[in-house]
Amino acid sequence: MEPSADIERVAVIRGVGMSRTGRRLHADPLQLTGEAALAAIGDAGLDPAQIDGVATYPGAMGSTPGMSGAGVFEVAGLLGLDLRWFTGGSEVPGQLGSVVNAVLAVAGGLCRHVLCFRTVYESTAQEQAGSRASTLTGPGSSRPMRADGIREWTLPFGALHTSFGGLETRRYFHETGGGREQLGQIAVTARRNAAGNEAALYREPLSLEDYLSSRMISEPLCLYDCDVPIDGSIAFVVSRRSESVGRSGIVGIEAIGSAAGMQAAADMLWSRTTLAPGDVGVAELYDGFSILAVQWLEALGLCPRGQGAAFIEGGHNIALDGPVPLSTGGGQLSAGRMHGYGHLYEACLQLRGHGGDRQVRPLPEVAAVSNGAGGFTGCLLLSAL
Amino acid sequence: MTLSEHRDGEVSEDRDGEVEIERIPPVVTPSSIDFWTAGAAGELRIARCQRCALFIHPPAPYCPACRSGDVNTEPVSGEGTVYSFAIERYTWIAGFPAPYVVAEIELVEQESLRLHSNIVGCRPESVFIGMEVKVCFARDGEIYFPLFQPANT
Fold first, then answer.
1. What's residue A351's pLDDT?
2. I need a surface site. Which of A62, A181, A345, B97 has the fewest CB within 10 A?
3. CA nearest A145 in B: which residue?
4. Residues of A in contact with B115 (CB under 8 A)
5. Per-residue model confidence (pLDDT) at position A5
6. What single DSSP character describes residue A371?
7. Which one of A145, A152, A214, A224 would you mutate to disrupt binding with B, by most B Cβ within 10 Å of its Cβ?
8. Could you tell me if residue A378 is left (phi over 0), alpha (psi between -120 and 50 degrees) or otherwise beta?
């Protein structure tokens, strides 16, 4: 398809903000949302009265406990926003599909400044639900009463999200000859980088030996292959580029991949830009399970197809000073599960040069961000402006 | 875990004094009822397009290839191979104790015709990708959960 409209170049990420994050914060999720939103709006140099759009994932919904911390209308009321356009929903191109929607709305002229946010309080919700399994099995108990919808085909067999991580990992090893000795570098690298991120949840060192000896969950998926439910909120302001020029710290959206499926999304992304995988200076790839980061590396062409395990072996290629710095803030494995928004936040910091102890040098000019898995996927190529 | 044959051909799980698995029942739909109940006749029934002959799983009222609405279920051999599997080491669901094997089974009738189920009747550590398996059933009232066991048992 022709990259004709170039809608990406009409919009920019003008502001970023993050609330407190952590385990068992016992904070009102609207409080966390307000912290992140006001930080992002302030960072954008705007007043809340100038925000005329809201986009969020997954929006107010009934889901597993803590999955959705706030919806569009709650936030509009919270901050007294006067909205010309808004959207909240979970059937979007990955968690960052909400940001894609914001770009479209701004490029289409429906609004000027869109507040995008994602709030989770899964850690506190686990405690309130009385079960660590509640974020997987559903509200109320550790035993869902009915297997309905798509769960009709999984729950009767005791298959949960971690099962799919295990299935993907096992099949990947079978097809590529890779193993846990290689895959462990995703978790080890994330943890090393998290040491330089004060907002990360887990910052103490993690060795490959620690990884290899860790508890199995859905074998071969181990504890350190799984991201960590936390409480927190992250927000962005997406604005028209023409009204943001001259500001420092704005991040350009070079290309969007919104297709269903990792490879299709990645192919779409590269079809909409003249840049190439070799131009990527930092990669923040979805790591809800560590195997997903490997699959995204391959899909985006950041390493040869089928050679992801060999590429990450030893960790040098994905280290801060390697050719493809990965999960520079710790990813979801070590910084906590902010559902894609954490990856975009970290990419913006890196492009701005605000990475502190984990800043990639020389300053990256292009960042790849991906989110989701299966048919629920999206990716963004960002550039420093 | 051992398996015991019943006189009507059904196979149920018997964990030799251990707690039996209490499976969470599916919310059966018009499209899925055959999948969940055909085990009463010892059959695994899979949806199939009556126009282009494509097998479809999960079952649906339309064929995703030719868009025909003429979809019915047909009995299949119940034979397949393990495409991938995970050994569940953590008990997430009360009444469904670990360890157990969640597997993606590719049925012999059609390439990429896969379904999720459990491998039973063998040690979890003995399962491997490519292992030949055949269907068996665990019954809970009207529901016959299609499970798979090694083909050589």
1. 98
2. A62
3. B24
4. 153
5. 58
6. E
7. A152
8. beta
Which residues of A, range 5-64, sit inside 8 Å of B by Cβ?
A: none
Quick check: A171 and B86 CB within 8 A? Answer: no
Q: Is the distance from CB of A114 to CB of A98 less than 8 angstroms?
A: no
| Rounded Cα–Cα distance for residues A238 and A112 (Å) | 8
Contact with chain B for residue A179, Cβ under 8 A: no
Question: Residue A131: which residues within 8 A CB-CB, separation 6 or more?
Answer: A137, A141, A142
What pLDDT was estimated at residue B6?
A: 35
Mean pLDDT of A145-166: 93
Q: How far apart are CA A279 and CA A302, in angstroms?
A: 10
pLDDT band per the 50, 70, 90 thresholds, residue B1: very low
Give B58 to chain A, closest Cα distance, Å. 7
**Percent of chain B scoring above 70 in pLDDT:** 88
Interface test with A, best of B24, B56, B113, B144 (most A CBs within 10 A): B24
Residue of chain B nearest A150, judged by CA positions:
B58
CA distances from B92 to A165, A230, B17, B89, B117 (A): 15, 19, 21, 9, 16
pLDDT tens digits, one per residue of A184-223: 999 999 999 999 999 999 999 999 999 999 999 999 999 9
Measured between CA atoms, the residue of chain B closest to residue A171 is B84
Rounded Cα distance between A192 and A328, Å, is 9
What's the angle, vertex CA A96, arms to CA A91 and CA A99, rounded to 5? 100
Residues A153, B87: C-beta atoms closer than 8 Å: no
pLDDT tens string A18-51: 999 999 999 999 999 999 999 999 999 999 999 9
